[in-house]
Structures are given as structure tokens and as C-alpha cells.
Design brief:
It contains eight helices and ten strands. By secondary structure, the protein is of the alpha+beta class. The longest helix is centred in the last third of the chain and has 21 residues. The two termini are 30 Å apart. It has a four-stranded antiparallel beta sheet with strand order 1-10-9-8. It has a single domain, classed as 3-Layer(aba) Sandwich (Beta-lactamase). 38% of the residues lie in helices and 18% in strands.
Amino acid sequence: MAEGIAGTVLWSRQPNTVVPIASITKVMTALVVVNAGDLERTITVPHESIAYCVRHDGSTAGLAPGEVLTARQLLYAMMLPSGCDATYTLAEAFGPGQHGFITRMNDTARQMGLAGTHFTDPSGLPVPNDDSNSSTPADLVTLGLRAMSQPVFRDIVGTHSYHLPAGPGNREHHWHTTNMLLGDYPGAVGIKTGYTDAAGTCLLFQTVRAGIPLVGVVLHSSTHGAVAAKDDAERMLDWFYGPIFSALPIG
């Protein structure tokens, strides 16, 4: 866990251990798309995006083949309900193609100095094997700090729910965040959950309290649901914020 202004590490355990990171991968996917710009461009959801989710048992945003959404709307579909269908669609459009997009993800990681990070799939699914899409806690904190410095990204991952009305090219959608810290832990502002059998329950998070931003990550917390990673994150945050708030005068 690091302080979010200077990036000072406050607490860590095995910060340089390389492990699978599941859907936290989508943070890099979103960062590549945001950096590319043109978020109002319209993109058609390909048929293969649905087959991709089915084939790998990935979470979806309920998209239908042939729907037309903007890149910005697809970012909400990817980051809130962790839609692998939206991820595939974005990668196909911005790569261009899956291979091209994954190359861009890894190039960005190298440019950021994330030596322990490697991507093989834009969603973080275990493709081609369980250990694919891997990083370290230290790298992920750096990635989280960079991503949250982007106002567009920050607005998206800080959103509890997003309603997309039906339009000429799309169905109605209502997406909710999987990040249980949002709306529950004081000062929580994002960013991304993840889960696979190999990665366990994961959570990359940011909070801002008393003007102090913190970015932290929990990896392989438990196989018993997102609440396990949330509880671990809260213990880390309470350890830091507790003495600060207990020292403040009452009233």
C-alpha cells in the first residue's frame, strides 16, 4: 500500500512476487484505451466477443452482437461489471485485433517500468494457462497510481452504477460496480476487482481521507468471494487511517 501523492510505500508483503492478477488486468486495458483517446468513437460489438466469454467462463456486461456503443460506454461496461465482452470489443477496435492490443498493453507496461508484469489476454482470463496475466503488488500500485491520475479513468471506476438507455444501435443496460469498497468504506474512490481460481480474490483500490490518497492491492485473498479482499483492504486502511482520525479533536 502506498501514499498516493509521492508514491511512498507504507506497508507491503512480498511486493515483488509475480502472481496472476485476474481482472485487475482490465486496469491496463482501460489505460491503453484512455491514452489512445477518441472515446466517442462508435464500436460494433462483434459476435466473437460473446463466444469469448462463454469459452472462458468470463463475466459479462450483457452485450449483444451487433450493438453499437461508444468507447466510453464500453469502458463503463468493462470496469463496473467487469464485462469481458466489452473488453474483447475494445481490444478488437483499439489493437487493432487482440494480438495488437496485447502488444500495446505489454509495451505500456515496459514504458512504465513494470518489469514484473506481463499480459496475454486483455480481460485477465486464464489464457493460455492459469498463470497468465501476471504482475507484482508493487507494479500494480504503480499502475493504479498512473491510471487514477487520468480524470476519465477516475470518473469511471468511481461510479457505483451506470445506466445506458436503449438507443438506435443498442439495448438498455444498467451496470453496477463489483468494487464493494465503494459506498461502504469512507473515502473509497475506486478501482478494480478480480477473480480466477489461480488468482483468488483480488482488489486494487484507492481511498482519499483527510486529503490523504492511498493506493493498495490485495492479491489471492481467498476463494470465498469478493468480501474477503474487501475485508483485507479495510484492515490495511484502518491500520493507516485509524491513528490519524483517533488523534483528531471531537466536535
